[in-house]
């Protein structure tokens, strides 16, 4: 009887020890699980912090002290490549003065005109500043107030017998791709249906070479640019009195970017008030043709 009692007691002790061992293992497993969970949470927090830091870096890069202006480098006198190989022009000089007053570094970014929206959306440029017509695009950008008025006109050779729109019947006309002149003509099918052809070209330098060579009879374009081209080329061209469309120039920013737009606008108004805008205009056009105030 005593032997059996001892056996039972020993068995009970072994079972107890086994249970204790299992409990220890379970505790270790739970502890490891807790550690893993804590590590995972910590990792998530670190990842979130890293993402937040990256976001802050991305945001900071948008205000890295550079003011990047998108422009067509074949659009004198607003923006083009000068004889010295450097970018120059009325708009670029105005932009450089704005950047200086805002303590930003000016950066000129030549763009294909038909890719301007893609450049702006991608953030490779801060604005489009290049004799940019506001009319018909009012809802597409955050606009500055207009700083210059302009007309769309026809340019022909001086020895041409074309003296009015009516004389363009059967003639070949060129216009820059995706320009406001092209848009205005597309809206005037009554006129364009009389043309022999209406051909879009990449830039106005090409159009003027075609006009000089006799490859085309007329160019539809900005009056401001036409007057400069005629003077600088010292060529025998003339501008018809007919106005295709009246318009205004503005600076286009990406939708939602009102902060930068407002800073640039305020600076332009300062430049108008102290005479700087008029001085730059007189340099390029012989008179002040700005309409900032």
TrEMBL record:
Domain Solute-binding protein family 3/N-terminal: 66-288
SUPFAM superfamilies: Periplasmic binding protein-like II
Bias (Low complexity): 44-60
Extent of the signal sequence: 1-27
SMART domains the record matches: PBPb
PROSITE patterns on file: PROKAR_LIPOPROTEIN (PS51257), SBP_BACTERIAL_3 (PS01039)
Zinc among keywords: no
Subcellular location: Cell envelope
Pfam families membership: SBP_bac_3 (PF00497)
Keyword Signal carried by entry: yes
Family matches, as InterPro entries: SBP_3_CS (IPR018313), Solute-binding_3/MltF_N (IPR001638)
Annotated stretches, region: Disordered: 30-68
Composition-biased stretches (Polar residues): 30-39
Keywords: Signal
Family the UniProt entry places it in: Belongs to the bacterial solute-binding protein 3 family.
Protein name per its UniProtKB record: Amino acid ABC transporter substrate-binding protein
Organism for this UniProt entry: Faecalicatena fissicatena
Organism taxonomic ancestry: Bacteria, Bacillati, Bacillota, Clostridia, Lachnospirales
